[in-house]
Amino acid sequence: MTIKTRAAVSGPLPETVWDSAPPFSRPRPWTELEYLALETNHLVEFSDGHLEVLRMPTRRHQQIVLCLYRLLFEFVTSRHLGTLLIAPFRVRLWPGKFREPDLIFMAAAHRAREHNDYFEGADLVVEVVSGDASDRERDLVIKRDEYARARIPEYWLVDPQMETITVLTLTDAAYIPYGIFRRGETAHARLLTGFTVAVDVVLDAALA
Length: 208
Known about the structure:
Largest sheet: 6 strands, mixed
CATH class of the largest domain: Alpha Beta
Helix content: 25-40%
Number of helices: 5
Strand order of the largest sheet: 1-3-2-6-5-8
């Protein structure tokens, strides 16, 4: 679920009401600097001056993310390949657009694009697709287009509902499937040569 912070009432609210409301509920355009300075325990993304407040992830979602993180972290760190982070952390796709992928990998060669508050793009991102229709559209359609526009070379989609891991690689300006892996199969990366993971292991992490 995405809640866009546009005005829901007519006229300004009393200052005392704003003081007790979450700061991102204010119906006004935001700047990048204001967004980056935002302090909240909510998952908040930024698009063209507006904040998008995301629903909190489920236990199943988080266990899948953590399973993949552990596997990727061991692979990446043992080979000194770069930096791997887990959400929430901001990725600036282009001026005015920030997303918070579930997992973010930046190759060591691109360390100059790493900032303390956000990364300038990424080399590989992972999203675990939630079950809600709006969440599925965001991950499967909207973010696919956005990550391609941002020139992120590889995008993994873990879909518990369809029981698949889809690995997308950037060709020209769009993603094409490098592989759609199902139960009983082993997913493998193109960017991180040699990284593989059994689909069953990832999907069944939620049952642990």
